[in-house]
Design goal:
The protein is an alpha+beta fold and 185 residues long. 30% of the residues lie in helices and 16% in strands. It has two domains: 86 residues, P-loop containing nucleotide triphosphate hydrolases (Rossmann fold, 3-Layer(aba) Sandwich); 68 residues, no CATH class. Strand 1 and strand 2 form a beta hairpin. Belongs to the ABC transporter superfamily.
């Protein structure tokens, strides 16, 4: 299988700093792009940790010790996190907690990663409007993110993740998403 078209985890282990027990132990998985894959497990089984590792959040943003291989296509978070990050989108359990907190409007929040990636302004505007329309946020583009309802914040978090057109898109506890958006994508 062409490594540019797959997710590859090999002997992945993760332990958060200050915690003795490993969150993940020796996980190995290969999956092709273009599939929806569900990960089911007991409470505290490591599902969220796996999504954080896949997104490159651990150890880059959240302190932890990661061993093994994480590769999405030809990219690995420990070799070039910035490029890797451009290929991953993630929505965590608390969507409001992953918003930048720096944006004055919903449109600015959706555009945040695109601006940081140096995408031209005309493309940013088009992509922001398209994603907002897809997720039913078109009428909220000029609102402050802080004024949104919980469901709207979920959709905003999804918008910020998919506007960059990521290769992979881990969703943590996606079962709680609004029914109206559970089929978007």
């Amino acid at each position: 299988m062409d490594n540019r078209q797959q997710i590859h985890l090999e002997n992945l282990s993760l332990r958060y700093r200050g915690i003795e027990t490993s969150a993940l132990k020796h996980i190995s998985v290969d999956a092709e792009f273009g599939h929806v894959i569900g990960i089911i497990g007991n409470h505290h089984a490591g599902k969220t940790s796996l999504c954080r590792a896949l997104a490159g959040i651990v150890p880059t943003i959240i302190s932890g010790d990661v061993t093994g291989t994480i590769q999405v296509g030809s990219l690995s978070p420990n070799l070039d996190w910035q490029k890797y990050n451009q290929q991953t989108g993630v929505v965590l359990q608390n969507p409001a907690g992953q918003l930048s907190g720096l944006a004055d409007t919903v449109a600015d929040e959706i555009a945040f990663d695109l601006i940081n990636q140096g995408v031209p302004a005309d493309q940013i505007k088009r992509r922001v409007f398209n994603v907002a329309d897809q997720l039913g946020l078109g009428d909220q583009l000029n609102q402050s993110p802080g004024t949104l309802s919980g469901g709207q914040k979920q959709r905003l978090a999804i918008a910020t993740a998919i506007v960059t057109d990521p290769s992979i898109f881990p969703l943590v506890k996606w079962i709680h998403l609004d029914v109206s958006i559970s089929s978007v994508g």
